[in-house]
Amino acid sequence: MTMSGYGVIHVSTSACVHFVGSDDVDSSIFTTVSELKRLGISYAYLNYSHGMAAIDIVNDIGKQLHLEYWPYGGGPVPPLVPFLDDLCQLSQRVNGVALVIDSADLMFKEAQNDAFNLIEAFLIQFEDWFNKKKPCHLCFQVERNDLVREAFCKQPTA
Length: 158
Hints:
Layout: E1 17-20, H1 28-39, E2 42-47, H2 54-65, H3 80-90, E3 97-102, H4 104-110, H5 112-131, E4 136-141, H6 146-153
Parallel strand pairs: 1-4, 2-3, 3-4
Helix pairs in contact: 3-5, 4-5
């Protein structure tokens, strides 16, 4: 089992956070996304853009996955808390989940705290998926990649 690219995101594994370089992506990404659909694994794709805040990121993902508490914000609770709860609840409704953040290099450059908080929240809820033997992956596409965007934006699932 290779750890490069997106080749294992349909598998339940403790290797759940991925940093993918452009050299790790080729046209097989379309087969991978087809496999996610076939297996009933939901996914969300976000192309990080200049100035996005954590609430923008989780709101975009929450919208794509049709999460219960979306939209986030507007209350005393930080947006990652209800997002975390939503991901745990999602594990009861779908066969797996993959979150893909494109242009992650820009995110880590200008929003490091948000990136690390997202990773931490993701890892907190990961155990729930892992115990159910359901795939759960957070993928950071380090450099923007049009193949990744095209594959994941073709027909989003939830």
